[in-house]
């Protein structure tokens, strides 16, 4: 991701929070395979783990799972089987991928920016072009995969993963006071589904963010972008307008007069 200085976000706590608020990540791998594409991506919701939530620099661990029948999972399993760990232990059946992986998390909304929004530059010089505003976080890391369905280690990882993911989504996203729990489903049914997924745990080694919301423009143009988006009356436009105002130092959205 191109992190132009004016758009870059380096605050690790803010980026951890961004991922927690937008947990559906795009997992990208580059694994050589005779049967599958070299580069593959899948949308996966992640649980974020951090030992000290107040830390200013702790990079998180991200936990997710992927369908065993997904071609990306098949390439991962193929690679792991052909390249066993050089330091196996009697109790561990997990496998660390040799290749670095990438994760991309997008904000809930993005928007096209029309040159008509630039209230200062367009009438003055006409030197404006369209662009797109958005927010995203990108992580790189080392991935450990859990794919042996007969392994107690894999079973324990997946049980914890799906329990934590369900609890997070039911409470933080849905806001349910009485959330649905994995234990509400028949145990045998859950066990069969668990055998059809593999776990992935990513130890993040690099984390960066980008809030591209018209910061490079002058105040008059930023204000014009915010007002233009708000005038659309859409949820997406309102969200991006809020980011433009927040990042551009324009204050709160004005109410009706």
TrEMBL record:
Source lineage: Eukaryota, Fungi, Dikarya, Ascomycota, Pezizomycotina
Entries under Gene3D superfamilies matching the protein: Electron Transport, Fmn-binding Protein, Chain A (2.30.110.10)
Protein species of origin = Cladosporium halotolerans
SUPFAM superfamilies per UniProt: FMN-binding split barrel
Protein name according to UniProt: Transcriptional regulator
User: Which Pfam family, giving just one, matches this sequence?
Assistant: FMN_bind_2
């Amino acid at each position: 991701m191109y992190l132009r200085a004016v758009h870059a976000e380096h605050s690790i706590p803010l980026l951890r929070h961004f991922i927690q608020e937008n947990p559906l990540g795009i997992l990208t791998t580059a694994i050589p395979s005779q049967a599958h594409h070299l580069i593959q991506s899948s949308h996966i919701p992640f649980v974020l783990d951090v030992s000290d939530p107040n830390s200013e620099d702790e990079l998180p661990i991200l936990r997710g799972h992927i369908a065993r029948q997904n071609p990306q999972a098949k390439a991962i399993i193929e690679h792991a089987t052909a390249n066993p760990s050089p330091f196996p232990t009697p109790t561990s059946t997990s496998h660390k991928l040799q290749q670095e992986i990438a994760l991309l998390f997008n904000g809930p909304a993005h928007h096209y920016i029309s040159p008509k929004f630039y209230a200062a530059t367009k009438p003055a010089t006409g030197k404006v072009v369209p662009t797109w505003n958005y927010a995203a976080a990108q992580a790189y890391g080392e991935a450990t995969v859990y794919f042996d369905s007969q392994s107690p280690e894999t079973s324990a990882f997946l049980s914890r993963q799906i329990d934590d993911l369900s609890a997070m989504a039911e409470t933080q996203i849905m806001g349910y006071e009485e959330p649905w729990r994995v234990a509400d489903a028949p145990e045998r049914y859950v066990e069969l589904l668990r055998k059809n997924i593999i776990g992935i745990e990513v130890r993040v080694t690099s984390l960066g963010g980008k809030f591209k919301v018209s910061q490079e423009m002058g105040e008059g143009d930023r204000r014009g972008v915010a007002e233009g988006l708000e005038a659309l009356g859409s949820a997406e436009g309102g969200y991006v307008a809020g980011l433009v105002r927040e990042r551009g130092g324009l204050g709160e959205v004005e109410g009706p007069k």
